[in-house]
Structure formats: structure tokens, C-alpha cells
Amino acid sequence: QVQLVESGGGLVQSGGSLRLSCAASGRTFSSYVMGWFRQAPGKEREFVARIVWNSGSTSYADSVKGRFTISRDNAKNTVYLQMSSLKPEDTAVYYCAARRLENTLYDTWGQGTQVTVSS
Length: 119
Known about the structure:
Low-confidence stretches: none
Distance between the termini: 40 Å
Order of helices and strands: EEEEEEEEEEE
Shape: globular
Number of helices: 0
Largest sheet: 7 strands, mixed
Number of strands: 11
């Protein structure tokens, strides 16, 4: 059974940094795309970043480009989201998700971790 467990959220001041982790288990993820999404109160869930596990190719939402970095550790089966220069508008629940490379929809989701950026 595929399982994604996020950690690393918390409260940080504007301009600060946080690193989120997503521990993946239950299968080999070499043929997968791993993504980070976020949902702020009263807003729809939005894409943040994604990484193709085997190639390391990355993609980012314009709102986080240059501030966030997604990476993966093959040995630990873990995906990271390094967030820097955080802004109050980055406040949201952050979710890790996975999909097979040939699919378009993410079908496995973690439980989410809260990130709060104070001004």
C-alpha cells in the first residue's frame, strides 16, 4: 500500500525558511512524479512544485519560482520542499502527492502539514 507522510510544517516569520519532507513507502517510485500542492483557507488547492523521480526534472508554480526548491533522496525514498523567503501568502496546508509518469492525475496523497507565515 502506497503511503505518503509529510512533516516539517510550522510557524515561521515572513522572510524565513522551512523544509518540508514527504516520506514515501509501499513501492518503488522510480516511475513516478512527486508533487507538492497547497490549500489556503477558503481557496482551492493549487500546484506548487513537482519532480520526476528518475530524471530529477523539476517544475514550479510562478508564485514560488526562485524561492522554493523541490528535491528527492533516493536512498531515503523522501521528497523535500525547501522554502525560503517565505511570505504570509504562503500560509496553507501543504500536501505531498504521487502519480505514475504516464498518468495526468495524482492518485496518492499525504495527510498534509500546516505552514503558517506571520507578517
